[in-house]
Specification:
Shape: globular
Strand content: 25-35%
CATH topology: 2,3-Dihydroxybiphenyl 1,2-Dioxygenase, domain 1
Number of helices: 2
Distance between the termini: 20 Å
CATH class: Alpha Beta
Structural class: alpha+beta
Largest sheet: 9 strands, mixed
Number of strands: 9
Helix content: 10-25%
CATH superfamily: 2,3-Dihydroxybiphenyl 1,2-Dioxygenase, domain 1
CATH architecture: Roll
């Protein structure tokens, strides 16, 4: 069901030190910084991403955090976005869109403000 979890950090070097150590302790690999400045950990089919919040504010337990959910098609992404906005969610970040890697994504905040994304698989 879930594709990834993204959390915010005010100090990516400190975060990298902690997560590199903890993932290696689990048999995983150190994180990789992507071109957008996000620290990425892939482990046993799951992905944790750590970033500075894109809104420029300090990271808190929820600011910078995103819960990612898998979708099987572009139509499902659009239907999720429409249903969410019809039931108290707020569209944020951008309209549903295709990303450079070929995935199709939509973002919402739930009625409590939690940031969610639904996306199809990347084509790369």
């Amino acid at each position: 069901m879930f594709t990834h979890v993204m959390i915010g950090s005010n100090d990516l070097d400190r975060a990298r030190s902690f997560y590199d150590a903890t993932f290696v302790a689990l048999g995983g690999k150190p994180g990789v910084m992507d071109p957008r400045g996000r620290l990425i950990y892939d482990h046993e089919g799951g992905r944790l991403m750590i970033t500075k919040p894109i809104d420029g504010k300090l990271a808190t337990a929820a600011n910078g955090g995103t819960i990612g959910i898998a979708a099987v098609s572009r139509e499902h992404v659009l239907a999720w976005h429409q249903a969410g906005t019809a039931h108290g969610g707020t569209a944020n970040e951008s309209p549903p869109t295709e990303r450079p890697n070929g995935s199709f994504v939509a973002y919402l905040r739930d009625p409590d403000g939690n940031k969610l994304t639904v996306r199809t698989q990347a084509t790369e």
